[in-house]
Amino acid sequence: MIGRKGLALLALCIIVVCSLSLILLTLEPAHESAPDVSSALVKAVDFCSGLDEPDALLMLDVMYRRFEISSFSDALQRYDQVLSENPDKAPIMRVFRRIADHDNVLQKGDLDSVSWELDVLTVPALYCDRMELPAYYNQSLTMAAVSGGYPLTHALVGHIWIQENGCELSLSEEFIEYMYHATAELINEDAVVTDLELEAAAFLHLAGQGALVDNAFIERVLAVQKDDGGWLSSSDKPDDSDWHASVLGLMLLLHVEYPATSYPSMLAPKS
Hints:
Blueprint lengths: L3 H30 L3 H13 L4 H14 L7 H11 L4 H7 L20 H10 L10 H11 L1 H16 L8 H12 L10 H12 L8 H9 L19 H15 L14
Helix pairs in contact: 2-12, 3-4, 3-12, 6-8, 7-8, 8-9, 8-10, 10-12
C-alpha cells in the first residue's frame, strides 16, 4: 500500500512527465519547419542551373568563380551560345560579357546599344580601366544613389566595379557609408520578400557589407523559397518563380553559407 509520501511523489512524477511532454510537443513542429540554408541552396542551384536568361548566366558565372559551383562551370559558354543565337541582342550582350571575360572584345557600335538608364550608370564602371569615366559620372552615380530603389543598388554595383577595375572616383567615405546603409534600409521588416530586397542584400554581400543584412531577413528569404527552389519577385503575389529574384536569392544564401573575409572579384580577372 502506498503511503502519503509515495502518492505525493507519484503525483509529482506524473506532473513532470506531462510537462516535459507538452514542451516537446510544442517544440517539435517548430524544429521540423525550421528552414535550412544548405538544403535551400541545393534546391536553388538546381533551379538556377536551368536558366538561360543572359543576365542570369553572367551571375551564374560570378557564382562559379566565387564559390566553385560546378553546375555553373559552363555559364559563359552557354552565354556565348545565347549570344550567337540572338543577333538582335548581340551588341548589348557583348558589352556586359566583360563581367565574365576581362579581355572581352567589343565590336564597333556595341556601346551605342547602351540606352537603359541603369545600364548607362553601370557600363562606364565596367570599362573604366579601358575608357576614362565621363566627367559627369560622379554626379550621375551620386544622384542615382540618392534616388533609392534600383538606381541605388546599381550605383552600388558601379562602385564595386570601379574598385575592382582599379579606377578612381572622388566619392567621400561618408557618402560611401551612406550608400551602404541606404541600401540596407531598402530591406524592410515586413513578411513580404521582394526582388528589390533580395538585390539589396545580395549586392551588399558583393560589396563586402553583408553584416548590414539582418539575420531576420535571411530567415524570411528561406521561409518564402518555393518548392522548385526559386523565389517570387514579390512573395505575396502567387506566380511562377522569377529568374531574377531566384538568382539574387541564391547569391545571397551562398554568401551566408560560406562567409569569408574576402572573395574572388565579381568581375573576371585578367587572364
